[in-house]
Amino acid sequence: MNDTPMHYCPGCSHGVVHKLIAEVIEEMGMTDRTIGISPVGCAVFAYNYLDIDWVEAAHGRAPACASALKRLWPDRLVFTYQGDGDLACIGTGETIHALNRGEHITIIFINNAIYGMTGGQMAPTTLMGMKTSTCPYGRQSDLHGFPLKITELAAQLEGTAYVTRQTVHTVAAIRKAKKAIRKAFENSIHGQGSSLVEVVSTCSAGWKMTPRQANKWLEENMVPYYPLGDLKDTTQS
Amino acid sequence: MKGKIIVNEERCKGCDLCVAACPMHILELSPLNVNSKGYHFVVQKAPESCTGCTACAICCPDACITVYRER
Questions:
Q1: What CATH topology corresponds to A13-233?
Q2: Nearest residue on chain A to B19, judged by CA atoms?
Q3: Domain holding B25: CATH number?
Q4: pTM over 0.90
């Protein structure tokens, strides 16, 4: 991680996850052999903060880009860093197929249930009844459908080796999330199959809350719908 | 004093998460001073009680807290 001040809003979970990725890469000694794919969304400037090689993919196309890079450079650690608008909305096809092919890549999925960068519109992962700027009366199933659990979908696929859902709202949760990211990266290097690490995150600006309230809201509303823990782990055997 | 923290005040965005995470409740947002972005950065109100547990540094999204421990 370099000294560039991050552009994220105060209390944004992106900063914590960036830090965890930087720590894991450094501990694994992979600084010179890691390629990250940054998304379109708030994390588009991730390449300014982590001193590794980066590729900026078209909106939602990060897993396709990562597949190509990993096939060309099998000894590299290739990961994508995507938000819910990039991964679960415009890039659902790429994500599902890259995971289903069992590409040896890691996908870090930041799920904050809202489109943060564009101003708090409804995302596929927005919870039922949750108010956003494009569903001001709350999300309704007959009009907007149901929140998409992409991690549960990924756990059903044959190609995935490790599918987990973590959060970073407490110190204990951050430590767990770091272990999950480390495991996913090791799978990527050892060619075990694709890994998906979902991080249930806060968007205090989009949710119109203070960071502290956002963490509380996450625990009370997001965690019951998006239960934490490992959904699939074939690396144990 | 078992631990000491150094806050990068310019980088701090005053998100209050470290204040909530500190098990000793010795952090607070500076009530009067702000940095160049206008944020009330975090300060230690009772530095002598710091145990150097690194909870504040782990949860800081902007990586602006460095923790030193007494050996």
A1: Rossmann fold (3.40.50)
A2: A212
A3: 3.30.70.20
A4: yes
Contact residues, chain B, for A13 at CB < 8 Å? 61
Q: Is B59 on the interface with A (CB under 8 A)?
A: yes
**Is the Cβ of B62 closer than 8 Å to some Cβ of chain A?**
yes
Contacts of B16 in chain A (CB under 8 A): 11, 210-212
Number of domain units in chain B = 1
Rg (CA), chain A: 16
A148-159 pLDDT tens trace: 999 999 999 999
pLDDT in tens, A109-167: 999 999 988 988 999 999 999 999 999 999 999 999 999 999 999 999 999 999 999 99
For residue A56, CA distances in Å to A27, A35, A40, A108 come to 25, 11, 8, 15
Helix or strand (DSSP H, E) at A181: helix A171-190
Question: Is B62 close to A215, i.e. CB distance below 8 A?
Answer: no
Q: Which domain holds residue B40?
A: 3-69
Q: How far apart are CA A115 and CA A55, in angstroms?
A: 22
Return d(Cα A124, Cα A127) in angstroms, integer.
Answer: 9
Q: What value of ipTM does the predicted structure carry? A: 0.92
Asked if A6's CB is within 8 angstroms of B17's CB, the reply is no
